[in-house]
Prior knowledge:
Layout: H1 2-17, H2 20-32, H3 36-55, H4 58-63, H5 66-93, H6 96-101, H7 107-119, H8 122-136, H9 142-166, H10 177-200
Amino acid sequence: xxxxxxxxxxxxxxxxxxxxxxxxxxxxxxxxxxxxxxxxxxxxxxxxxxxxxxxxxxxxxxxxxxxxxxxxxxxxxxxxxxxxxxxxxxxxxxxxxxxxxxxxxxxxxxxxxxxxxxxxxxxxxxxxxxxxxxxxxxxxxxxxxxxxxxxxxxxxxxxxxxxxxxxxxxxxxxxxxxxxxxxxxxxxxxxxxxxxxxxxx
Length: 201
């Protein structure tokens, strides 16, 4: 039981660290102080659904329909290119610092963006449905599999809420417009690199 719990927790944590687009969005919302709880909860609940599906064996079903992966790859790349372009434009115009002083974007729009960054990212499916699903097969029986999935999900909750709320400690640094521009350029580059990886991979 302890082995299943620790394996689920640390495997999920390592994989979440690699999903850059989602993490960058959570960090940015944390810096803005906008809808942090809702964004972190959305990411964590999405992971919970995907992890549960992966452990339940849905990864095998996805592998039988490679066309779905291809569709998600190009849809995700298109969205990442578009979101990256928005961040480059914000950096060029120096708008992000102004955004921080304006009323928050609606919760609905923020969650919609969060969901797209999560569910249009094929790497999320590969990691949760594929890799976590594969690792979970070493544990037999409902109790061990449930323990694995529970602690993998717990890892996701801890990571996203920690990322979102720890960002407030950087807010002092982000008072300068130049800092926002650097961050926006960094996010834009990350989005385009991820998109290129999806297209070329």
